[in-house]
Write a structure and sequence with these properties.
This protein is an all-alpha fold. It is about 90% helix and about 0% strand. The chain folds into 3 domains: about 140 residues, no CATH class; about 130 residues; about 60 residues, no CATH class.
């Protein structure tokens, strides 16, 4: 277990073996913090991905990958911080790592906030879904209401025509009745020619009323059927779009609902994970330069010295070899035998070039 936490801390185990128990415990504590931060990241990512994929196996698989990524990043951050004799240099090298730790803390904390405040988020989402349902119904109604209102207005007009015609027929009925009674018209009691004329007019209008009722009732029935069809289309459209609203509980929707809750509890949870994520870095910055740091620095300095020596030796060898080569070529340049040999070869080369030029010109002509 101790060696495992050493590995998590990114410490050099060979160097750490030579250190005191307290130094080994300190490095194991840093490694444990890195390990358990990765565990929290795995849990947080698995929950967040479960809200996306709605599949527990896929969520666990990708959550493990995310946890390993966070583990590797934290291990890298901690292992690259070296203790220096200058506090400002230590802060300078730790600043970008702390910024990265803040980003990681935000990423880890947010999914767990979603789980911790799940009930409150569900309440906010329920209110939003209800509002979306009402808005959806209103928007869909805008597509169908004009048609329904037009059909209803047409029915009202058809019914009004029937009522007006009935009023007219009733007036004609009263006219010929009062004519027969002698209380109006010619003021003569009995069914005379005027009565017959008015009675015939009434009967004709009564027949017209019946025809109007038949025609208008047919139109009203057709309009009622059309209204029922449009109403059914409206209900079908609402039913089809409702599952989209019911499914409005994804990751972005939950994050948006979380932002509508009071910010203070979420902020404290973020601070908790920020403290966990930055604790290895802060511990290294606050801890005095220990035995492990001294041994590691001595090991690194010995390697630097060895590399510097090899570079210097290579430079000296190169300089010496260059000087020897220059001296050798200067001595060779003064030999008459080499001069005569090169002169002979140069003459042969120029002869071959002249012959080749002559043959080429000859082919062209």
């Amino acid at each position: 277990m101790k060696r495992f936490f050493w590995m998590c801390s990114g410490a050099d185990q060979d160097v750490l073996e030579q250190c005191s128990k307290s130094e080994q415990i300190k490095q194991a504590g840093i490694g444990g913090t890195v390990f358990f931060t990765a565990i929290m990241a795995t849990i947080a990512a698995s929950y967040a991905l479960y809200t996306v994929f709605d599949n527990i196996f896929a969520a666990i698989f990708f959550g493990l990958i995310w946890g390993l990524l966070i583990f590797n990043l934290d291990r890298f951050i901690v292992s690259t911080i070296k203790k220096r004799d200058n506090v400002w240099k230590e802060l300078a090298q730790a600043t970008p790592r702390i910024a990265l730790a803040v980003i990681i803390a935000i990423v880890i904390a947010k999914p767990l906030e979603l789980k911790i405040f799940e009930k409150e988020i569900d309440q906010v989402l329920l209110e939003e879904k209800n509002q979306l349902t009402l808005d959806n119904q209103s928007q869909i109604a805008l597509q169908y209401n004009p048609t329904i209102e037009a059909l209803k207005a047409d029915n009202d007009q058809l019914k009004k025509e029937i009522v007006d015609k009935e009023t007219e027929v009733n007036d004609l009925y009263n006219t010929y009745i009062t004519e027969a009674e002698g209380t109006a018209g010619t003021m003569k009691l009995g069914k005379g020619p005027v009565y017959k004329e008015k009675r015939e007019k009434h009967d004709a209008e009564l027949q017209s009323l019946q025809n109007l009722k038949d025609n208008n009732n047919q139109k009203i029935a057709a309009n009622d059927a059309a209204i029922a069809a449009v109403t059914n289309d409206y209900a079908s459209k609402v039913k089809t779009t409702q599952p989209i609203i019911d499914g409005f509980d994804g990751l972005m929707a939950r994050i948006g609902a979380l932002d509508k809750l009071p910010w203070l509890p979420s902020f404290f949870i973020f601070l908790l994970f920020l403290a966990i994520e930055t604790s290895p870095i802060i511990a290294k910055l606050l801890a005095p330069k220990g035995e492990y740091d001294l041994r590691l620095e001595d090991h690194e300095n010995s390697i630097k010295t060895w590399v510097a020596q090899k570079i210097d030796q290579r430079a000296q060898i190169l300089g010496t070899d260059t000087g020897l080569n220059n001296k050798v070529y200067e001595d060779i340049a003064e030999e008459d035998e080499l001069y005569d040999y090169k002169k002979k070869k140069a003459r042969e080369l120029m002869q071959l070039q002249a012959d080749a030029f002559y043959e080429n010109q000859k082919r062209i002509l």
